[in-house]
Amino acid sequence: MDITLQVNGVSRAVDVDPRMSLLDLLRERLALIGPKKGCDHGQCGACTVLIDGRRANSCLALAVAMDGSEIVTVEGLAEGEALHPLQAAFIEHDAFQCGYCTPGQLCSAAGMLGEPGPSAVTEDLRADPELTPAEIRERMSGNLCRCGAYPNIVTAIAEVAP
Question: How far is residue 57 CA from its own chain's centroid?
Answer without folding.
Answer: 8
